[in-house]
Design goal:
Helices cover 41% and strands 16% of the residues. With 353 residues, the protein is an alpha+beta fold. It folds into 2 domains: 2-90; 113-347, Bira Bifunctional Protein, Domain 2 (BirA Bifunctional Protein, domain 2), CATH 3.30.930. The strands form 2 sheets. Strands 1, 4, 5, 6, 7, 8, 9 and 10 form an 8-stranded mixed β-sheet that branches. Strand 6 (254-258) and strand 7 form a beta hairpin. The longest helix has 40 residues, at 51-90. It binds adenosine-5'-[phenylalaninyl-phosphate]. Adenosine-5'-[phenylalaninyl-phosphate] binds at residues 160, 181, 183, 207, 209, 215-216, 219, 221, 261, 264, 267, 292-293, 295-297, 318-320, 322, 324-325, 336.
Length: 353
């Protein structure tokens, strides 16, 4: 009987090893472990053997039974896994579509140059301890003008041609508009934090103006602000130079000249040499050789007050980078209107996913 048991063991293991379908394994299971299976038959036949033999054979037969059960379970598990793997292989989806599109000879996605430059600038400022803020496109007069030291009758309101939104119920000072600059976020940023702080705010600005090679109606700016104690014009110039150096990876020719913005005093225009024509004069720089890129200045005390900050105790600088123009300079794009054209021949020239 013992011999028969060990033969059954060998026979079972060989049969199990050759199977790879779940149904065949289940058949084998009933052949050995079923009610009328080979092991069950042996266990039943123990009642006819002498007690001495039964004492040896009984535990051995039960051990083999449980061993078979374990081997069958393991086998079923491994079949399940290979079935799943097979299914996964068949239904694999290339979520980047890269392989599919390459095979079909189609374009695959890429980052817009605005996104590439914005990410680069954000990384540079984050490394210098600045936060990155966001703000709404639809604003009211308070954030776009009033709080920035541009009262209702101020001629500076005409410096930026505004898209006003129809809102017959709006109160005085609450008329809604599409923000004409990202400086609105200076106010929002100040009201939400206590000095010292420093942040940038990249975003879209809207102006109702005629487009040309360097002007769009919908364009991107990047606001920056630093407020603390004893901040000086040299701090401002240091940050402006650092950003330009990091972005262009080389020294570019810059010129700083006085500039008027009601929200800064003193205010500056920071121009860079036009990198499209190398300063010779072209349609982007209007034949001047220079591109207005980075207006900036020391925050006006009235603006600090609008942001809930005491100008006797704190001061700071702010700037409004023309980030679309920076994109043009970095990539040698000779017309700002390409940025919004949606033309794949343009878009596909930049870094792909
Ligand atoms: C402003 O918008 C101020 N808010 C900037 C500022 C912030 C000054 C903080 C001082 C302190 P300006 O209108 O010059 O300023 O615009 C800033 C920059 O945005 C310009 O130098 C230019 O690079 C870019 N820009 C302005 N108008 C357009 C336009 N229509 N299309 C593309 N870029 C533009």
């Amino acid at each position: 009987m013992l011999e028969k048991l060990s033969e059954l063991e060998k026979e079972f293991e060989t049969s199990l090893g050759s199977l790879d379908a779940q149904a065949d394994v289940l058949n084998l299971k009933s052949l050995y472990l079923g009610k009328k299976g080979k092991i069950s038959e042996i266990l039943k036949s123990l009642k006819d053997v002498d007690p001495e033999t039964r004492r040896t054979l009984g535990p051995k037969a039960n051990e083999i039974k449980s061993n078979f059960q374990t081997l069958i379970n393991n086998k079923l598990d491994s079949i399940d896994i290979s079935v799943i793997n097979e299914k996964l292989k068949e239904s694999r989806i290339d979520i980047t579509f890269t392989d599919d599109l390459k095979e079909k000879g189609l374009f695959h996605g890429g980052y817009h140059p605005r996104t590439l430059v914005q990410r680069e600038i954000e990384d540079i400022f984050l490394s210098m301890g600045f936060e990155v803020l966001d703000g709404p496109h639809i604003e009211d007069e308070f954030y776009n003008f009033e709080a920035l030291n541009i009262p209702g009758d101020h001629p500076a309101r005409d410096m930026q041609d505004t898209f006003w939104l129809e809102d017959p119920d709006s109160e005085e000072g609450k008329k809604h508009l599409l923000r004409t600059h990202t400086s609105t976020i200076q106010i929002r940023g100040m009201l939400e934090r206590k000095p010292p702080f420093r942040f940038i705010a990249p975003g879209t600005a809207f102006r109702c103006e005629r487009t040309d090679a360097s002007h769009e109606m919908v364009f991107n700016q990047l606001e920056g602000m630093m407020v603390g104690k004893n901040i000086s014009v040299s701090n401002l110039i240091y940050f402006m130079k650092t950003i330009l150096k990091e972005i262009f990876k080389t020294d570019v020719k810059v010129r700083l000249r006085p500039g008027f913005f009601p929200f800064v005093e003193p205010g500056f225009e920071l121009d860079i040499e036009c990198l499209i024509c190398k300063g010779k004069g072209c349609s982007v720089c209007k034949q001047s050789g220079w591109v207005e890129l980075l207006p900036c200045g020391m925050v006006h005390p009235n603006v600090l007050k609008s942001g809930g900050i005491d100008p006797e105790e704190y001061n700071g600088f702010a700037f409004g980078l023309g980030s679309d123009r920076l994109v043009m300079m970095k990539y040698g794009i000779e017309d700002i209107r390409h940025l919004q054209s949606g033309d794949l021949r343009f878009n596909s020239q930049f870094e792909s996913y």
